[in-house]
Amino acid sequence: MQHTLRRTAVASPVLALLAGGGCAVLWPCGEGARQSIGAPSHGALVNAVRVPERSANTRLFRSESEGGQIHTTRTLRDAVLESAQRVARVAPGGAPLVVGDFSAPFGGRIERHRSHRNGRDVDLLFFAVDRETGRSVPATGFVRYDRDGNPRDREATVRMDVERNWLLVESLVREERYGVLWVFCADWLKQRLVSWAREHGRDPRWIERAERVLHQPGDAAPHDDHFHVRVACTTEERSSGCLDGGPHGWWLSRALPKLDAAPQDDLDFSWESPERTLAPSPPAATRPRRRR
After folding, report:
1. Which contiguous run of DSSP H or E holds residue 180?
2. Which residue blocks in 49-115 are alpha helix, DSSP H?
3. Stretch among 133-137, 265-269, 275-279 having the lowest mean pLDDT
4. Which of 148, 151, 262, 292 has the fewest CB atoms lying closer than 10 Å?
5. What burial letters (b/e) apply to 153-167, b meaning 16+ CB within 10 Å?
6. pLDDT digit string, tens, across residues 65-94
């Protein structure tokens, strides 16, 4: 049964979900239904798409049968698959991008994460190279890296592939239709990536954008073992109650205009302050880690 969209009720979309059904009383459930509802930490999914276990340039860290979360929006699926393809084209011969969790089939709470609840978050393991040979190898897991790109675990056999990780970030921020709001990443790794881009003459436009979206979260682990990518709501999703969870970069104003909601309808996140100094690398032994 199709239900009529009622914009007056978008303030609490998750409360309207039918238990176990994946569709909402106040939102349509057919092919044309909007996908992302609510906020990244309090949201749901309608008509999610599945991400393939393998593609030409990606593979999942965990399959669905192994407990991986492989459902998301079309926008985020395309952002990951297409960006991995661009990295492979610019730096051929490398290992595939290893992709962590997206969201559950209908969104909502999942293990290992406090967000990832409305289909607009994904974890991407860092590209890595063999420590001895320098050859590109698949990421072996959530390896923590220091400011020099070396693993904190001395037994790890990999180090960070700065080139391919920069190319991945560059692809994500240059394509405006992806609507990338954040690429959560430790400050010291952000510094390393941006420094590499400048030293190798990458386009200043993409460097400027990357400096805006690469961000170490203040309420979670610093993300020194993976990228956490979050994309904006589309204009249509916002009309169904999707909340961005961050301000738009100026370059997104044409691709994803906010025509339907005032700025205060978004969660209160601020851009990184220009005066903020880079945090030092933490010691190898830290308190238990929580991902976003």
Report:
1. strand 180-184
2. 74-90
3. 275-279
4. 262
5. eeebebbbbbbbbbb
6. 998 889 999 999 999 999 999 999 999 999
Query: Which three-class secondary structure state does DSSP give residue 72?
Result: strand
Rounded to an integer, what distance in angstroms lies between the CA atom of residue 117 and that of residue 243? 12
Q: Name the token pair of 170.
A: 């560059």
Domains identified in the chain, total number: 1
The residue behind tokens 């320098």 is 134
CATH code for position 158:
3.30.1380.10
Q: Is residue 281 part of a domain?
A: no
- What's this model's pTM, rounded to 2 decimal places? 0.81
Contacts of 175 by beta carbon, 8 Å cutoff, 6+ apart? 79, 82, 83
Cα 116 vs. chain centroid, distance in angstroms? Answer: 9
In a domain, 282, yes or no: no
pLDDT of residue 221: 79
Angle (nearest 5°) at CA 190 between 184 and 193: 125
How far apart CA 5 and CA 14 sit, in angstroms, is 14
